[in-house]
Amino acid sequence: MNTKIKWSGNASFKAESGTGHSIQMDGPEDHGGENLGPRPMEMILMGLGGCTSFDVMSILKKSRQDITSCEASINAERADAVPSVFTKIHIHFDIKGNNLKEALVKRAIELSAEKYCSASIMLEAAGVEITHDYSIA
Asked: Residue 96 and residue 114: Cα distance in Å, rounded?
């Protein structure tokens, strides 16, 4: 796996993945940016959300759950001192579908957190407290 980050001027950078996908990152206006894209630390949260959502959906599909929607909302706290690392992250899953079994939804989230989500496991190993909850409709 690889990626390239190219400076685009001011506080803006274009990230390109090894698979050819790209995204523009930028800093806030008070740091020389133009707010043209997400901040790098926001990208970490987006990666975490994508990683765990992919796992949860995969596990639920294998469990033959009829999912119509899955949304992960992530809230994070950061240290006040530099480096301003994440200290706590909470992930709330809002899962909708037909005749969903709560025990399977709960287990899918647990498996993602404890076994499959590389991003989550890596952040926890670095000392970030990650919690989860869910709602089912």
From this structure: 23
Say which residue the tokens 């949304």 belong to. 71
Across the beta sheet with 129-136, the strand order is 66-78, 86-98, 129-136
Note the CATH architecture for domain 40-136: 2-Layer Sandwich (3.30)
Pick from 99, 120, 123, 98: which is nearest to 109 by CA? 120
| Beta-carbon-side half-sphere exposure of residue 114 (alpha carbons within 13 Å) | 6
CA dihedral 61, 66, 71, 76 (to 10 degrees): -50
Condensed to tens digits (0 to 9), the pLDDT of residues 34-90 reads 999 999 999 999 999 999 999 999 999 999 999 999 999 999 999 999 999 999 999
Do 92 and 70 touch, CB atoms closer than 8 A?
no
CATH class of 1-38: mainly beta
